[in-house]
Amino acid sequence: MELHIVGSGSGMPVGHRSSSSFWLENNDDVILLDCGDGTSSALHRANLNPLEIGAIVFSHSHSDHWAGFPLLIQRFHLLRREKPLTVLASHRIVKFLKYVLEMSYMWSERIGFEIVWQPIEDGKKYKFKSFSIIPHLNSHLEGYRSDLFRHPLCDIKSFSFEILCDKTRGIYSADIGALSDIDELLHRKAKWLLIEGMHYSVDEFKKWITKKPVEKTIITHIPPEREKADFGNAIVARDGMTIHI
Ligand SMILES: [Zn+2]
Question: What top-level class would CATH report for the domain 2-244?
Answer without folding.
Answer: alpha beta
